[in-house]
Structures
1.
Amino acid sequence: MSFLRIKQLGILVAGLMLSGCMATQYQSADTSSFKPRDKDLLSKASYARTPVAASFRRAIVDYHRKEAPGSILVDSDSHYLYYVLDNGKAIRYGVTVGEEALAFSGIARVGNKREWPDWIPTADIHKRMGGLPSRVAGGPDNPLGARALYLYQGNQDTLFRIHGTNQPEYIGTSISSGCIRMTNEDAIDLYDRVKVGTMVVVLEPRRSARMASWGGSGSTN
């Protein structure tokens, strides 16, 4: 093989590594582990089954930050949630995050977790969005979706959640009232991995440059 050909192949491999193609392992939703209730309610959902953009599909990626395995980190700018694994890996999920003025950031813990939770709009949401009921029963078209992780600081409920959604078309955007939304399939997957007490780190917006330095926001080499 000529030196020029070897050089061209080297450039190609380097480009693939920088793009994350060689380290990213995309995963399909494994519905075989879903409970009968999950399968029944998801089959009755009336929202559009909009496919998530390829870059926001669930994937195994390299992870170079120092959060302990079992922790959650949310990169608000890049719209990714990471569940940290052993051996420098993480499961990366695409998410919807809050609009800048409403977004949560900081360190919290999972203080509670619920399957098919009721939605109780906060006073602030009632103020911004008139005409809402006081409670919406859990179900396939509930805004909290199939699962919810309740974020606490100390013993105080922050009122922010990581939860499923009936609007999968917005995964990868910043439009929520502050909560972190996932597809219902991803929310079930994360819920089954997470324990009460799990640490959750939510980076403040406009920190993508820092994330890029360790490969967490799309570059997975």
2.
Amino acid sequence: MLDEDLSRLIPSLLPRLWRFALRLTANRHDAEDLVQRACVRALERPHQLQEGTSPLSWLFSIMYSIWISEVRARKVRAGSAAEWQDEAFEHLPDPRASDPENEMLHQQIISAVGALPDPQRVVMLLVAIEGLSYREAAVALDIPIGTVMSRLARARITLGERFAVTRPQRLPKGVRP
């Protein structure tokens, strides 16, 4: 991709980059900084975008890499492991929520996704929220596609358990309900 093409494409991707960064960082200031750093890095290194790779996936990959480095640096600076804190999570209102019950459910879902272990949460954000394919998410995170599928399955099970969604039991072979 040519430098000019990337420069023209990035503004159209900003809403999705912002949304991912906000969910990843759980802080508006950190999200703004993360989006800016990812865009600058992409514009400085357009030659690293491999042919056949989605620019959006590539930018998510850059963003995730920057964020992981930042989290590690913060842990070192703090001298202890950083914990995900629900209190720091900024809730965005759902414009489609028509009543308080829907709003409360929306907030519970955001909280539940935010409470997932980081590897599962990031895969859930990329696939379920951002709509990336398993392959695109695997490229963005630099992990095998099977790992994406496994993390997503575990995330879905965790969320299902949190909201008391039961999985259908398999009947023994040859037995009909």
3.
Amino acid sequence: MIRLIGIDPGLRFMGWGVVDVEGNRLRHVADGVLATQSGDDVPRRLCDLHEGLMTLIRRYQPSEAAVEETYVNRNGSSTLKLGYARGVALLVPALAGLSVHEYGAMAVKRAVVGTGAATKEQVSMMVRRLLPGAEIKRADASDALAIAICHAHHRASAQHVAMGVRMA
């Protein structure tokens, strides 16, 4: 069994989700959102995200992390701030000794729903279906679980390739 944490970066809300993977079975462990105060300055908010992620990694002790790659917004300032949060999302698991993997939004949607053009609602519905019993309260947490599921699928495929297993 291996434990994965998926992280959906955001400066205001950073989604996270933890799943256990055994073979091709997925089990929901926990999910949630790290929220920062929009009135705080950016360095304080980044510290809050750092502390929150460190606490989650200590509590759930994942073996690997998966982080969503960000896209460029039209608003340069928003893109830059999102990049700061993404930096924290990449740095914290790396500092904890985890291998960190990155996936674009379309790859996550393809892995979970089967099409890169899936809507957020379709992704959320499939996450709930793949992880029975998960009571996801925010879309950011659902997205983070989808990232973890995506990594679980990619990880399994890479293992099959490494072992020389031919897929039908």
